[in-house]
Amino acid sequence: MITHVTYLRDAADFVAPGLDARNEPRYRISEIRxxxxxxxxxxxxxxxxxxRDADVPALTVALRTLLPLPAVVARxxxxxxxxxxxxxxxxxxxxxxxxxxxLTVVPEAGPVxxxxxxxxxxxxxxxxxxxxxWNPIGARQRMFTGEEMEGNLQDAVRMVFPxxxxxxxxxxxxxxxxxxxPGFAVALDRTAQHVQSMVDSIDFTVANVSxxxxxxxxxxxxxxxxxxxxxxxGPAAAQVPLWLVDLTLWQCDHNSPEYDAFLAESVRYSxxxxxxxxxxxxxxxxxxxxLAAATDWAAADRLSPQLAAxxxxxxxxxxxxxxxxxxxxxxxxxxxxxxxxxxxxxxxGAPIELLRSVLDLxxxxxxxxxxxxxxxxxxxxxxx
Length: 384
What we know:
Blueprint: H1 2-10, H2 16-19, H3 29-34, H4 41-45, H5 47-52, H6 56-66, H7 70-75, H8 78-97, H9 102-105, H10 109-120, H11 128-131, H12 148-158, H13 161-175, H14 182-208, H15 211-218, E1 225-227, E2 230-232, H16 243-251, H17 257-266, H18 272-281, H19 287-295, H20 305-335, H21 352-374
Antiparallel strand pairs: 1-2
């Protein structure tokens, strides 16, 4: 087990190759992790001790001490602004965990958070990306508790960031293709590889983070914080946008009002380019619908080899998504059981019932696709 954990931490920089080379400052993972524009390393090194002592006065002084001048924020690039928000966010979450609204005791933090939000084109507080992907690894890792399980949870989320970023390309390609096109199955197979990282991540979480630790020790640090009269969620795992994949596979035209409402809240915590992807694809014809139209499985008894391959590939991706969601529900049920939980809903604002609803939607779409290959058919001979 320790060997596996150590390997993941040693491999945590695997997000950098390929991503760092893109013209997107939020993908410059290594630079953001190295950045310390607030010179916050010393204070963050003792943050777990402040939290163990519930030392609200010390946390308040630390937050006030770290605040940059507005003129300094104006000079920062996106990388520096992201790192600054990351570090301030650790004190926001800590103060709220101990029953103190951060901007009530440090009101001067409000304009700084708003300025950082504008500079980074993100919400004016830290997100799951700040807490995990953009968080340094090793001796400089920012943690609320300093406990090994907290580090394991951060590693689990780090695992999926590069795959989600890559899925934007494969899903965008999928949205432009028809099931008869050979590229349709290829795009789905590549997407399946990306989604598998989510299953690997949740398996790692099950093995290395206990539901009791998450529910009773870590979950309180992810409570919402008021900024400029609006409540902003903490760095919730629900902000890891699996909807990027759902969107073009099935969600854009097979959705539910409850999932729609949840996404409307969750999307704003994403990266700007990911929000743009959502805006571009939230209305359209999903891969499931296009395959259903192409196969016309109500009457047809013959599928071309390419169409059959597309159906198999689409069913495979949906099966992986279903597996992830089933295991996620298993974790959530344990963490939010009556004898364990401190909160009624998840840190992303979703109740268990919504997780079940999305799992059911995923399963229904998988069943719909599997009908295309379940009945005996005579493949149409290829003349290629």
